[in-house]
Amino acid sequence: PRLWHSRPAAEGTSFSVGADGVGIGRVSEASMAGYLPSAGESGTAVLVCGPEGMLNHLCGDPDRTNRPRGAVEGLFGDLGYDGSQIVEFSDRNVG
Fold it and tell me: What is the pTM assigned to this prediction?
């Protein structure tokens, strides 16, 4: 198991990883590919939480009506993850 934590930085700051192993800056496809297990690795599961804008960036907009059930969009979709691999901790899908 791996744990990766990222925190925001000033607008326009490129992504970097500090000496403490914490990512700083806007999460990108390249930063995710460098730190997360690939979608094809057996048993891969990614737990994600954060503000709605970040979740939309990573997982796609849950309110899009023509989104196929179980589909993952956003950066996770771009990297080949599917809905069974992403566990989202948020209240944006509750209600």
Answer: 0.73
